[in-house]
Amino acid sequence: xxxxxxxxxxxxxxxxxxxxxxxxxxxxxxxxxxxxxxxxxxxxxxxxxxxxxxxxxxxxxxxxxxxxxxxxxxxxxxxxxxxxxxxxxxxxxxxxxxxxxxxxxxxxxxxxxxxxxxxxxxxxxxxxxxxxxxxxxxxxxxxxxxxxxxxxxxxxxxxxxxxxxxxxxxxx
Length: 172
Prior knowledge:
Elements: E1 3-9, H1 12-27, E2 31-41, E3 47-50, H2 55-73, H3 77-94, H4 101-108, E4 116-125, H5 127-134, E5 140-144, H6 148-159
Antiparallel strand pairs: 1-4, 1-5, 2-3, 2-4
Helix pairs in contact: 2-3, 5-6
């Protein structure tokens, strides 16, 4: 079962920095993410979602490949590729993976202008190492599905003073 964590940051850049940090930890097998989306409240009051993956584009590429292959079998590769890309794009646009977009927009309505909410769907994680890496990064926990103990540990880690920089390390 996955856990949802929503953290609000003062800027989109800070939310993106933390998302990249989490993706880096995923490469180190410290955390396994199902989804990581940033929601930003724009000047016009609308909420913009910055997804990790564009399902429409991915569907178009996949559909184009399969359409080209099937078209080649039936001696019409260009027609097959174009029909495959169109149907793949349509299927990709209708596919919603990870966190529900409407849920994210609903939670993000109360964001202040310029603030960004990082929505993370976590399959599993090595809690102590992930919290150490997030120590002192700031942010306000908006919502989680974690138990009370883990949620408090996350709040404490975000609010903690970051560890001193290693020699030669540059921090932003």
